[in-house]
Design goal:
Shape of chain C: globular
Structural class of chain D: alpha/beta
Distance between the termini of chain C: 73 Å
Oligomer: heterotetramer
Radius of gyration of chain D: 19 Å
Strand order of the largest sheet of chain D: 6-7-8-3-9-10
Largest sheet of chain D: 6 strands, mixed
Helix content of chain C: 40-55%
Distance between the termini of chain D: 34 Å
Number of domains of chain D: 2
Chains: A mainly alpha (about 325), B mainly alpha (about 300), C alpha/beta (about 375), D alpha/beta (about 250)
Strand content of chain D: 15-25%
CATH class of the largest domain in chain D: Alpha Beta
Order of helices and strands of chain D: EEEHEEHEHHHHEHEHEEHH
Largest interface: A-B, 44 and 47 residues
């Protein structure tokens, strides 16, 4: 069978790239949201899809990144985009500290703990922890990002920032998947006793999966803060975590194209259903059930990795 | 000390409702290893159906308060059980062979569907149960004023739990449910109709959730279409706390969760109440990774 | 695989095609409201009221002979969705947008409307800072938290209470009001024995009431919403605690009495802008009549009615200026519109776009569960 | 010299003493069999060596160094590889990926190297792949490289587990019932493979119920009964041993 995927991907990328020139600001902003959630979904995919850890608290790391950016930008006027690495770092360090004691929990026990995590973070933000989060008002007056002297303010501008970052994410994560690290996560997802018995430090890899996912969620938080210019605790509630969780599972665990498609469906469909007015979420719920029934392993499950045939010296290069 | 006991009863009242909902989670989980995220919404459906039945049939004209409650409870349990069974047939059975998480997404979709269906049918405003169904007086126990309704709530939940426990332990169907929970394949080989067991579990769990919804409606008066989400999450927490899949665990977890909440609010901080609850939960799970009564699964190597 | 690619294609076309807006004749006014989500009941009321007013306006010949078209967008009661809704509305060639309810939600949309030179008239967003940013096109028909804080302070002071408990729900609005009242009371040296936040949407508040009771306040000022207020009153009665409760304007909703029951709600007082039922102006009477006629009930809350007032002042300004130029309309609203007969009383705006005048009244619930305006 | 020394190893599960004061040595370069009736504690001994369980008493020395407290992956890194009694492959992954799992502990590249695909990382991947293919060829399953592991025949799954263990570059390999579920033809092949492993200089310790395999392949045997060691010696000596015969009497032969 001839592989049509590259053609589809090329058409998709081309259409996406041209979209802001044909769509109005609203639809471009819908695409921006899709892009943002695609980044979040991809970062959660490392933890949930590849390492198989039931993590439903990703919004906590997203929030940490967004608040890091918001607090430092509004108090010290440091340009927003410069804070992106720092936002990632804060979320990553937090993940390292938080995940360590809970990483040995299994399945659903980890699930509820991560739900607890996102609730604790949200309640801390509402209660103005350390007096720096602005309570339920959140933080406002975050400045617009600038890139090479160009001020990013309109949806079309953000489109290129967000999808540019999404493209970088895809590029790097694709390589990560097809590496020693990516395989190690899959081993421990399939059978962590066997993985440990094959010499893989499973606890370490679970932790690193959390950290990598959190760093990316933190950076996505940075973009979100820049885009909204105001952030409030309610933007990071448990429901946000659920959305990310659904994006990964609906699209296909461990599949980059799947997760991006998942983001289109979960974030984009409710916008398409606006004609149903108050019934739109009802329709959306029913469609989610239907999609899961017809594609039980997600819509685009990952394809097996390909390895160059024997005696490969030009190899090491994945699909 | 008075205050402590007062808060303890406050916590137990809330906790008994969590426990009742948690039973549904834990039963379904025991057999299917599925977290039924739509369970909280079945609870909300129970609350709304109870209101509809109460107002359309004008039950309180013919029956005394206890009669109303019992008739309502039976009707609500029956109806919600049917909804639960349909949910299983439509949204979960096709996914039985798939990865466990696939069914979770289906459950979330069903949850969104139910919640919005309630909003469309009943409207977005709060709905209120009539005030004159249950007696308002309080009874005095050891110098405490405890509202009679609260005792009734506590009593009903405990009765339901005991009944369920006996059902699971003593009856043939109960034995089949336990067998299917331990090993579905083996149960099938022993001639147990696993599909039927699952169907029964999806009748009983939602029925209990529905009756919990009715109790919330009767006791607190106010219901809204988003209530299932909050209660569902709390009850899921309770089930995990007790050790998911374990029926006494769900009871203990529910009651304990209610008490932790009340004590957290009483002695630490009201605003941080839910955060405190989760911190306690995390601390307990770090020490006992499979919950209070959950079995410790040693790694079979 | 093929099915998949077709599906993707359809999705893309859907996204590309759905965005075209048509230019046509009528005056287009946007409404941004929480039609879904936690505040769906408020949002659906807002929509009903604004649509009703638009209908009757069109029946009476529209604005200067032009029909009015209301374009509604759902903000979901959530800032992120609101930003999207704002983007959506700002592509629809609207002159002004009415809404929305929550302060944080309004805030997420403010910048977008401002950049697009669209007038925004908020109806329920009382956070002070919204009008302190120097945005040219922002107005609101609701009063600000500081005004209500002042009234609350006066009420509590006049009541002669010795010890005061304050309870909020950590929402941006309720916390703001609680803080405002506390600051003023503290200056006076009042004895605040309790200041805490409950978690909304949980049915059981007995643990909180038990704890509050232990601190023994003479009065409790609750700044949160009617749903929780109703439950607090009910559970307070069940535990035989006779302390008087005073509520902020978010408790102004007939559902409060339904939830609490007449017996428990009796004697509860709250601050609020007057509801149309209590105004004897011809406008208010006519409005109530047509509302009852169409929807067979009373409006849920005053906030939705304030959205109606927002619609009416905008329509008035377009008519008076004969223009859709936002600068002219805003100038008219801020400088020339004086004591416009609104559904909630006379309306004027100050230079910041805030509504002028002391709007707050004190209400009490009587034995029959009716809201009685206190003199 | 002994590569592995067990010293007075004891492990209890609740009231049950699964392994009771067991001591024996495995000389470098030998093929040693651990035999005994079902429930004698053989697999528990393996799990103690590989760090899946912690001994209650006693010590385990590998190359003269105590490994009692090390986590499993560290023990693998030191050069002890294993297979499992109930096959534990990564069923949804391909055969070559299963073998690459073994290579993992001999590789270094981290997250950043992988994202940037640094030259050293590329070289390492290429080398690992070549080694993985060599191990597949060694056990004779190279033709199935791109199959999903769960689709392999039972015998080949056993061989794949051995290949994965060999890929860790061990000095010592532990095989838990490697012939379980194999037919005679496959068993004969397995015996050849085990000998070849030893010929590569890797010491072998195995549990097996198939006595023909044990007697043919092993140079030395250790016999456990009820958690305790009852005999030790060459296959010839064990066959004569009174206590061993007694222990096996009445026990159904597999």
């Amino acid at each position: 069978m001839k592989d049509v995927r590259p053609v589809i991907y090329a058409v998709f990328c081309g259409a996406l790239l041209l979209a802001p020139f044909f769509l109005n600001a609203y639809w471009v902003d819908v695409l921006n949201n899709v892009g943002l959630y695609a980044i979040l979904g991809l970062s959660l995919n490392i933890i949930l899809g590849h390492a198989g850890l039931f993590h439903m608290g990703h919004a906590a790391f997203y929030a940490m990144g967004a608040y890091t950016t918001a607090i430092i930008n509004t108090s010290y006027q440091i340009p927003v985009l410069w804070l992106m690495p720092l936002s990632g770092l804060v979320a990553g360090v937090a993940a390292l500290v938080i995940a360590r004691p809970i990483i040995h929990l299994r399945g659903d026990y980890l699930l509820i703990v991560t739900i607890g995590l996102v609730e604790i973070v949200r309640i801390a933000l509402i209660n103005n922890v350390f007096g720096i989060t602005g309570g339920s008002n959140g933080i406002f007056g975050i400045s617009r990002p600038e890139l090479f002297g160009f001020r990013i303010r309109r949806p079309e501008h953000f489109f290129f920032l967000i999808w540019g970052f999404a493209a970088i994410t895809v590029f790097l994560f694709h390589r990560l998947e097809n590496s020693r690290f990516g395989r190690a996560l899959n081993y421990l997802r399939e059978d962590d006793v066997a993985a440990e018995g094959s010499g893989i430090n499973t606890a370490h890899y679970k932790l690193i999966a959390f950290v990598v996912g959190a760093v990316w969620a933190g950076m996505a938080g940075n973009i979100f803060a820049a885009k909204m210019t105001i952030i409030a605790p309610e933007s990071f509630n448990f429901w946000e975590s659920v959305i990310m969780f659904m994006i990964v599972l609906l699209g296909g665990r461990g599949s980059i194209p799947g997760v991006i498609l998942g983001a289109f469906l979960i974030v984009g469909l409710p916008e398409l259903f606006r004609q149903f007015a108050t019934a739109r979420m009802l329709v959306f719920g029913a469609i989610m059930v239907a999609m899961m029934i017809f594609r039980t392993e997600g819509i685009l499950p990952p394809r097996p990795r390909r390895y160059p045939a024997a005696v490969a010296d030009g190899g090491g290069d994945g699909p | 000390m008075d205050l402590f006991l007062q808060q303890l009863t406050n916590g137990l009242a809330v906790g008994s409702i969590y426990a009742l909902i948690a039973l549904g989670y834990t039963m379904v989980y025991g057999v299917l290893k599925l977290i039924n995220f739509a369970h909280g919404d079945l609870f909300a459906i129970g609350a709304y159906l109870g209101l509809t039945l109460l107002t359309t049939f004008g039950l309180s004209q013919y029956l005394g308060p206890m009669g109303v409650v019992i008739v309502l409870a039976v009707m609500v349990m029956g109806l919600v059980a049917v909804v639960g069974a349909v949910l299983e047939r439509v949204a979960y059975r096709p996914l039985r062979q798939a990865h466990r998480l696939s069914a979770v997404v289906s459950a979330m979709g069903a949850s969104i569907f139910f919640q919005n269906a309630l909003m469309l049918v009943y409207g977005a405003r709060y709905k209120v149960y009539p005030h004159d169904i249950l007696p308002k007086n309080a009874v005095s126990i050891m110098g405490f004023e405890i509202p009679l309704v609260r005792l009734l709530v506590l009593l009903t939940s405990v009765l339901m739990m005991v009944a369920l426990y006996l059902f699971i332990q003593k009856t043939r169907i109960g034995t089949a449910i336990r067998a299917a929970a331990i090993d579905q394949r083996a149960a099938k080989l022993m001639g147990i109709n696993v599909d039927r067991v699952i169907m029964i579990v999806f009748l009983i769990g939602p029925a209990l959730g529905g009756v919990a919804g009715l109790m919330v409606g009767l006791y607190y008066g106010q219901i809204n279409f988003t209530m299932g989400w909050m209660y569902g999450l709390k009850a899921f927490t309770a089930a995990i706390l007790g050790g998911i899949g374990n029926i006494p665990g769900a009871m203990v977890g529910g009651l304990l969760l209610g008490v932790i909440e009340a004590m957290g609010a009483a002695y630490i901080s009201i605003a941080w109440k839910d955060a405190i609850t989760f911190m306690v939960l995390i601390a307990i799970l770090i020490v006992r990774p499979t919950g209070l009564l959950g079995e410790r699964v040693a790694d079979k190597v | 695989m093929k099915k998949m690619s077709v599906f993707m294609l359809v999705l893309m076309i859907g996204l590309l095609g759905a965005g075209s807006a048509l230019a046509d004749d009528p005056v287009r006014i946007g409404l941004m409201a929480p039609l879904t989500g936690a505040w769906a009941s408020e949002g659906q009321d807002m929509k009903q009221i604004v649509e009703l007013l638009a209908e009757s306006l069109n029946a009476a010949g529209g604005i200067n002979g032009r029909k009015v078209q209301v374009i509604t967008a759902d903000d979901g009661g959530d800032p992120r969705t609101a930003a999207l809704a704002a983007q959506r509305l700002s592509t629809q060639k609207i002159v002004a947008v009415i809404g929305t309810y929550g302060s944080a939600v309004t805030e997420a949309s403010q910048g977008i409307y401002d950049e697009m030179d669209i007038i925004q008239v908020a109806n329920g967003s009382t956070a002070i800072r919204l009008s302190e940013k120097g945005l040219k096109h922002f107005l609101r028909t609701c009063p600000r938290d500081d005004e209500q804080g002042l009234v609350a302070y006066q009420t509590l002071k006049d009541g002669g209470y010795k010890s005061i408990g304050i309870l909020h729900d950590n929402s941006s609005y309720a916390k703001g009001l609680a803080d405002e009242a506390k600051t003023l009371l503290d200056k006076d040296g009042a004895n605040i024995v309790f200041f805490e936040a409950l978690t909304p949407k949980q049915n059981d508040y007995t643990a909180i009431l038990t704890r509050m009771r232990a601190s023994n306040p003479d009065v409790v000022f609750f700044t949160g919403y009617y749903g929780e207020a109703g439950l607090l009153l009910r559970q307070k009665m069940e535990m035989n605690w006779p302390v008087p409760f005073i509520g902020g304007d978010a408790t102004n909703n007939p559902d409060l009495v339904k939830i609490a029951g007449n017996a428990a709600a009796k004697g509860f007082r709250f601050l609020s802008p007057p509801v149309p039922q209590d105004l004897d102006t011809p406008e208010a009477k006519a409005f109530m009549e047509s509302y009852r006629g169409k929807y067979n009930g009373e409006p849920g809350s005053v906030w939705a009615v304030l959205a109606g007032d927002g619609f009416r002042v905008v329509a008035k300004a377009i008519e008076a200026t004969g223009s859709e130029d936002p600068g002219k309309i805003v100038a008219y609203l801020k400088n020339e519109l004086k004591d416009f007969p609104g559904l909630t009383g006379p309306i004027s705006f100050d230079a910041k776009g805030d509504r002028v005048g002391d709007l707050y009244r004190l209400y009490e619930v009587d034995a029959g569960g009716k809201f009685v305006l206190l003199p | 010299m002994s590569l592995l020394q067990l010293q007075n190893l004891t492990k209890r599960f609740g009231g049950l003493v699964a392994v009771d004061n067991v001591s024996f040595d495995v000389p470098e370069g030998a093929i040693v069999g651990l035999i005994g009736p079902n429930g004698a504690g053989k697999t528990t001994v393996f799990n103690l060596i590989t760090g899946n369980y912690r001994p209650d008493r006693g010590d385990i020395l590998f190359d003269g160094r105590s490994i009692r407290k090390l986590p499993t992956h560290r023990i693998v890194h030191l050069g002890i590889a294993r297979t499992f009694q109930t096959i534990r492959l990564f069923p949804k992954l391909s055969v070559v990926e299963n073998v690459l799992a073994g290579r993992h502990c001999r590789m270094k590249a981290g997250v950043i190297a992988a994202m940037l695909r640094l030259p050293a990382q590329k070289r390492e991947e290429t080398a690992a792949l070549a080694e993985a293919r060599a191990e597949m060829a060694f056990v004779g399953i190279e033709r199935d490289a791109d199959q999903v592991a769960e689709n392999l025949s039972y015998g080949n799954q056993r061989l794949l587990e051995i290949a994965r263990a060999l890929a860790t570059g061990p000095r010592f390999i532990i095989l838990d019932e490697p012939a379980g579920g194999m037919n005679d033809f496959e068993t004969a092949k397995l015996i050849r493979v085990i000998r070849q492993i030893r010929d590569r200089g890797i010491t072998v310790l195995l549990i097996e119920h198939d006595m023909s395999l044990v007697m043919e392949a092993c140079e030395q045997l250790v016999v456990l009964e009820n958690g305790a060691k009852i005999a030790e010696g060459t296959p010839g000596e064990i066959q004569e041993n009174e206590r061993v015969i007694e222990a096996y009497l009445g026990v159904e032969e597999e």
